[in-house]
Amino acid sequence: MIVLVINSGSSSLKYQIFDMKEEQLLAKGLVDRIGISGSSLTHQPLNKEALVVKEDIENHNQAIELTVKALTHQQQGVIKEMNEIDAIGHRVAHGGDRFADSTVISDEVSNKIAMLFDVAPLHNPPALMGIEACARMLPKVTQVAVFDTAFHQSIPEKAYIYALPYEISKKYSLRRYGFHGTSHKYVAQKAAEFLQKDISALKLITCHLGNGASIAAVNGGKSVDTSMGFTPLEGLVMGTRVGDIDPASLLFLMEKENMNIEEMNSFLNKKCGVLGISGLSSDFRDLEEAAKNGEHRCQLALDIFAYRVKKYIGAYSAVMNGVDGIIFTAGLGENSPTIRQAITEDLGYLGAELDHEKNNRRGEKEISKQGSRCKILVIPTNEELMIARDTFRLVKTS
Ligand code: ADP
């Protein structure tokens, strides 16, 4: 079965295409600057030269048309004709409390995704544009929505209800949803495979550390708590997002700096995090370099970032009454020994002991010392494969 995976943003569309017989990636690509001048498509087939198309791409319909053209291209294509595509899986950021699993897309599902525009104004509208564009171009192909929030729907009420008046929480469905669910689920499953243990018997803490960062407590394969909340702004310190903060300080700042709601929202999402603390960059490579050269604010940003992750590890160990594995994933989690060391230093009380040599070796999966009671693992995430797997599973059984 051939599965196309689509991750549709407001001005970009990423895709990957898999042959699910061997879970083999055939090609991936990016349509960039949709509706903006200078738009292009870059198509990278496996073991073949890339195809780059530079032309005006006005909207998501054109982006999908161009994607299908690239996939069926005479030289750089990976399928002969578009009806070889058996199913399409879409990444959808917000499923609210309506979707606890991936689902085959119907008109009703599309309507529900649209009803969540209010809580995910940046992410759900482009996802629906991608879905509608595929439906127009490939009307006979089954489409599946895979939600970033779905994995966290198992979180108990005591962990997802905020201390607001209960009727207000209910009126606006204002609660913790959590994000990066596809990634947390994927690495938790991979960790169980690696440890050769049944996931139902494992207490895991998964740390997805990229530009956006979140952490999850996964008990017996189910998410029981996570750091992102109603939106992806809560929790860890991120590249440019503030994470946990006293809500009163926002009111204070709005008054002092004369900011309106829109300005405050943009400030909290784009100007804070390690960028705000360091004043230099949101990229951890820049910060690590500058910290080595003695830049205090860059070192401080790294320290604060690691400290916050460490605090959550302590909290989630308490929530689960112990932890068998701490898993690092995403750009920073997979690639920065420095950050992993700063986070896992002094976790002896959990029985987690970092092996410094292994931590510094690229490609090592287990980076804890032999005999460490709690394993520390580095597992590259693969959200697209997870979306393809869910799509395959649902189409097979539908
Ligand atoms: P997102 O998907 O949220 O945009 P990624 O998972 O791609 O983010 O992670 C991107 C971040 O990973 C970059 O901001 C960078 O700081 C960090 N990163 C990538 N490689 C390294 C590295 N070798 N050392 C330190 N940080 C790295």
Kindly report the name of the CATH homologous superfamily of the largest domain.
ATPase, nucleotide binding domain
Strand order of the largest sheet: 5-4-3-2-1-6-8-7
Parts with pLDDT < 50 across at least 5 consecutive residues: none
Q: What does the average pLDDT come to?
A: 96
Oligomer: single chain
Helix content: 25-40%
Strand content: 15-25%
Bound molecules: adenosine-5'-diphosphate
Tell me the domain tally.
2
What is the overall shape?
Answer: globular
**End-to-end separation:** 14 Å
User: In terms of structural class, how would the helical and strand content be classed?
Assistant: alpha/beta
Q: Helices and strands, in N-to-C order?
A: EEEEEHEEHHEHHHEEEHHHHHEHHHEH
List the total number of helices. 15
The biggest beta sheet reads: 8 strands, mixed
- Tally the beta strands: 13
Can you tell me the CATH architecture of the largest domain?
A: 2-Layer Sandwich
Enzyme class: transferase
EC number: 2.7.2.1
Catalytic activity: acetate + ATP = acetyl phosphate + ADP
Family: Belongs to the acetokinase family.
